[in-house]
Amino acid sequence: MTLHDYLYYILLPILSFSIVLLFIRFLMGPSIADRVITLDLLITTGIGVIAIYSITSNQPTFLDIAMILALIAFLGTVAFSYYLEKRNKNE
Questions:
Q1: What is its membrane topology (predicted)?
Q2: Which of 70, 82, 84, 87 is 20 to 30 A off residue 10, Cα-Cα?
């Protein structure tokens, strides 16, 4: 089994199934914090898919896109936690 077979037949189905489960959790999340964490996990899983596509297509440019997406997701999560902290102080 080569690396490409392993990526196509094992890792991509696992990531696809996890995206479906995370999207269901995003829709059913009881609180806003649960939805933000789920959105962060969705973006992280998407970064994994982008990395696999970059490896299989032999285009390392997509890894730069994955890094930028990771930075945006991290900053969004930090900004939201800061917002929740300020909101709890005001209440």
A1: Multi-pass membrane protein
A2: 70
Helix axes 12-28, 32-57, angle to 10 degrees: 160
Decide: 12 and 52 in contact? Cβ < 8 Å: yes
What is the tens place of the pLDDT at every residue in 50-71?
999 999 999 999 999 999 999 9
Q: Name the one residue in this structure whose structure tokens are 């089994």.
A: 1
- Alpha-carbon torsion angle 67, 68, 71, 77, nearest 10: -120
Side-chain-facing half-sphere of 69: CA atoms under 13 Å: 18
pTM, rounded to two decimals: 0.87
Per-residue DSSP letters for 1-28?
--HHHHIIIIIHHHHHHHHHHHHHHHHH
User: What's the CA gap between 32 and 45, in Å, rounded?
Assistant: 20
Closest alpha carbon to 8 in 45, 53, 50: 53
